[in-house]
Amino acid sequence: MAFKDIFKDDNSYNEKSIIGFGAFAIMVIFAGADVVTGIMGKDLVINDVVYNSFLFTTLGSFGIAGAEKVLKK
């Protein structure tokens, strides 16, 4: 399957889950970087708007994907 086939309507991938996982992975990287800089004694400054955008993207993507799975006939 080619990369462009992922975005067709008749594929086997759930795009919402892919986007949600990517946003969650970025949040995990932020958390890891915060722990590492905390151990080094420095403060990692992350803009709240940026972090919250990844948070809402993750929750929204997984929430919509989960609702589709539960409400599917």
Question: What do you see in this structure?
Answer:
- There is one protein chain.
- It contains 2 helices and no strands.
- The chain is mainly α.
- Helix 1 runs antiparallel to helix 2.
- The chain is elongated and about 50 Å long.
- The two termini are 28 Å apart.
- The model has no long low-confidence stretch (mean pLDDT 85).
- Describe the largest sheet: none
> Spans of 5+ residues with little confidence (pLDDT < 50)?
none
Radius of gyration: 16 Å
Residue share in helix? 55-70%
Report the β-strand fraction as a percent range.
under 5%
Give the ordered list of helices and strands: HH
What is the fold's blueprint, element by element?
Elements: H1 15-39, H2 48-71
Compose a concise summary of this entry.
This protein is mainly alpha-helical. The chain has helices at residues 15-39, 48-71.
Descriptive tags:
73 residues; mainly alpha; 2 helices; 67% helix; elongated
